[in-house]
Amino acid sequence: MILPSVFKQIEPTFPAGLLDDPLLLVRVRATGRSLLFDCGPLHHLAKRTIKSIDAIFISHAHMDHFMGMDAFVRHSMVSGRVYDIYGPPGMAARMERKLGGYDWNLAEDFWSDLRVHEIHPTHFARTLFSGSQGFRGTFLGREERRDALIYANGHLQVEAALFDHKIPVLGFRITEKPGFQVDPKELESLGLIPGHWLQELKKNYYEKKLSLPIRVNTREGEKKLSGEDLYGRIRRESPCTSIGYLTDIGATAANFKQAGELFADLSLLICECSYLRNHKDKARRSFHLCTDDARKLAEKLRPRFFLPMHLSKSHLKHPQDLYRELRLPTDVTLLQLPSYQTPRPRLCDEIEPPTSWRDQEEKESS
Ligand SMILES: [Zn+2]
Predict the structure, then answer these.
(1) Do 131 and 247 share a domain, yes or no?
(2) Does the structure show a pLDDT above 80 at 352?
(3) Rounded CA gap, 11 and 49, in Å?
């Protein structure tokens, strides 16, 4: 399932669907590399997709969010790369126990490393699990957290905050960095003629070499200009788009306040909605959200799009109940499962013979 194309640089998808265990893959279009948010049923993914993952962000270590880590390690351990894994306090000990469940006596020098970053309220704690050392953990140290930012590459950044699910749970905000964009009106007003120099300027922008001078075509002929000045004058300003990913939190005032701080002005909120209204008591007991809670959150945050996920399979029997109960404000677009679901396999006694066969059988028996 691919989400709406409001994003320019990134492509969020739910390769395992919206039911049951969550798995959000965010692919960077320009590089083909990906980030993974939660680690549910990873075996759904093609090997080449797993190989495109640079970093994994785990909301918490309940089994439905963490069990895919084994499949990830299996497919990535001999690639010789360093993978970054972000998780709540206690993640390093959980990785150590998970990796400690296997024998690694045949580990080779070129095997991959897993670098675990625990996100605490005021600091990071980092531990390296080196493949060449049979994934034995080495504590790398602590680093102060100055703001919500936990990860960035040339195309996006990830911020995080801790929520309460009777254990600490991370919510994530993924924001696209502004891409290279040129305003044709500015080109016209400056007498610039589009040409190969625009490609060169774009390349310099992404390679962080805008300080290099550039030869441009103008109505008066060729000119050499400073790349930085030039882009500053012709760039088109547009707002950055962002995704909020929130799952498995209790419907408490403190959690809603934290959501308000991390998720202001979102393009898309991807939010757990495990229970219908009539199972509110179950939601309260297990510190999950029901439809009424998710609606209140959408009313508070007013994202442009709202996608309920981590849905119980029981929703499938009456999918419209879920969407009817959510009743979002008119400025928030609710993204829904398609009305058509892949049919389940049929049992032998559920298959009827064609009518012509039945007619023939009736004739023969009479
Ligand atoms: Zn949970």
Answers:
(1) yes
(2) no
(3) 13
Tokens of 86: 């972000």
Instruction: Read off the DSSP letter of residue 86.
Output: E
Looking at residue 22, its pLDDT comes to 87
Instruction: Find residue 200's DSSP bridge partners.
Output: none
CATH number at 247 reads 3.60.15.10
281 DSSP 8-state letter: H
Q: Which residues of 339-356 are buried (b: 16+ CB within 10 A; e: fewer)?
A: eeeeeeeeeeeeeeeeee
Q: How many structural domains compose the chain? A: 2
pLDDT at 364 over 70: no
Q: How far apart are CA 175 and CA 158, in angstroms?
A: 6
**Could you tell me the distance, in angstroms and rounded to a whole number, from the CA of residue 217 to the centre of ligand 1?**
58
| Terminal alpha carbon distance of the chain | 53
Given a contact cutoff of 8 angstroms between Cβ atoms, the answer to whether 322 and 311 are in contact is: yes
Confidence at 7, pLDDT banded by 50, 70, 90: confident
Give 290 Cα–ligand 1 centroid separation in angstroms. Answer: 14
Measured in Å, residue 255 CA sits from the centre of ligand 1 at: 15
Quick one: 28 and 49 in the same domain?
Answer: yes
Q: Domain range holding 224?
A: 184-234
Whether residue 56 is found in the same domain as residue 104: yes
Q: How far is the CA of 356 from the centre of ligand 1 (A)?
A: 53
- Extended strands (E) in 204-293: 213-218, 221-226, 242-246, 268-272
Residues 6+ apart with CB under 8 A from 47: 75
Centre of ligand 1 from the C-alpha of residue 60, in Å: 7
